[in-house]
Amino acid sequence: MTVQQDTLANGVRIVSEHMPGLQSAAIGIWVTAGARHERIEQNGIAHFLEHMAFKGTSRRSALQIAEAIEDVGGYINAYTSREVTAYYARVLQNDVPLALDVISDIVLNPVFDPREIEIERGVILQEIGQAHDTPDDIIFDWLQEESYRGQPLGRTILGPAERVGAFSRADLAGFVAEQYRPGQLILAAAGAVDHDALVRGAESLLGHLEARPALAVAPARFTGGETRRMKALEQAHFALALEGPGYRDDALYVAQVYSSALGGGMSSRLFQEIRETRGLCYTIFAQTGAYDDTGTTTIYAGTSAEQIGELAEITIDEMKRAARDMSPEEVARARAQMKAGLLMGLESPSGRAERLARMVQIWDRVPPLEETIARIDAVTTGDVREFAEDVAGTAPAALALYGPIEAAPTLAELQERRAA
Question: pTM surpassing 0.85?
Answer without folding.
Answer: yes
